[in-house]
Amino acid sequence: MWGTYDEFIKDLILNFNNPVARDEARTKFSHIVQGKNEKAAAYVIRARKLNLEADFETSKVWEYLWQGLNEDIQEWMIRERIAKDQWDAPSNLQACYIRIHDAGRRVEERADNKIMARQKRVTLNLLQSKGRGGNSGSGAGEGSGSKTSKLNNSNCKINFTK
Known about the structure:
Layout: H1 5-16, H2 21-30, H3 40-54, H4 58-68, H5 71-79, H6 93-131, E1 146-150, E2 157-161
Antiparallel strand pairs: 1-2
């Protein structure tokens, strides 16, 4: 049958390995694109999984990751001098994934912080308008048949309608 273990492994791979799996993975990887709402971490995980079969060298992985990367993250990386372009590949595969993941996380955090700040401003404006006697929009207020209960020395009021 087999003279050595290496011959056995070689025969096993020939019989049970998908001969086109690597080519299919390389094709998929070459067209990888970060989805509009896809987090950088998910993009990196997807790329890593594909590259296990595609087995690209570091420069090719970087090139394809860069091309498919969200433009906001690319711009941030260039502005922060983390990368110049798709040809500015890190020295090893792990560094490719780390750069993309870290840059994406920072850009995503900035976007989240902007949203939270905007929401905080809206909330503060609503609270301030209520403190000045503004209308809550519920239609129920003093003089409209509601009972108002004040809580222990606070400015908070709870309206109970009849």
